[in-house]
Automatic annotation (TrEMBL):
This is DUF421 domain-containing protein. InterPro entries: DUF421, UPF0702_alpha/beta_dom_sf, YetF_N. Residues 7-78 form the YetF-like N-terminal transmembrane domain. Gene3D superfamilies: bsu07140 like domains (3.30.240.20). Belongs to the UPF0702 family. It comes from Salinicola rhizosphaerae. Keywords: Cell membrane, Membrane, Transmembrane, Transmembrane helix. It comes from the Bacteria.
């Protein structure tokens, strides 16, 4: 088989196989990215690209690699739900960046976040005054959560690093 025909045939079938494997693996595989999700996604993409351009890799090898990556992802996420050690290895902890209208500059520096990013997140939530914000949290996927006002217990902030 010529390299071009191999690319067309293996590319088509490996792409379809990837779609099937990802759909069967569930929503977690397609969730917002944290570092672990990023590694899984890049691994799947790299495997697909290798299968498409390399005549040394068979369609079966490609499908086995997809299944292996998704199976490992499943094992890790299954384990992280049951073990705090695995969870801490795989996922970072959300971090408080602003509390009661005050920027937590040391935390911001450690997380490599600047005031302008926090102000933008506050504006995106339709809030004009930083002082009216109870908290801004850097979530594990890199997004910002803005809590506009304090509640009675502030229970949404349980587990957020200060």
């Amino acid at each position: 088989m010529s390299p071009v025909v191999h690319t067309l045939v293996v590319g088509l079938f490996s792409y379809l196989a990837l779609i099937v494997v990802v759909r069967l693996s569930g929503k977690r595989t397609l969730s917002k990215w944290n570092a672990f999700d990023f590694v899984v996604t890049i691994s799947l993409g790299s495997t697909l690209s290798t299968a498409i351009v390399s005549t040394q890799v068979s369609l079966v090898q490609c499908i086995v690699a997809f299944v292996l990556i998704v199976a490992l992802q499943f094992v890790i996420t299954f384990s992280s739900v049951r073990s705090s050690g695995v969870k801490n290895l795989v996922k970072s902890q959300p971090t408080l960046l602003l509390e009661r209208g005050r920027f937590l500059t040391e935390t911001m520096r450690r997380e490599r976040v600047v005031e302008a990013e926090i102000r933008a997140a506050i504006r995106e939530n339709g809030i004009a005054d930083v002082e009216r914000v109870f908290a801004v949290v850097l979530e594990t996927d890199g997004t910002f959560s803005v809590v506009p006002e304090a509640g009675d217990s502030n229970s949404a902030l349980i587990g957020v690093a200060r």
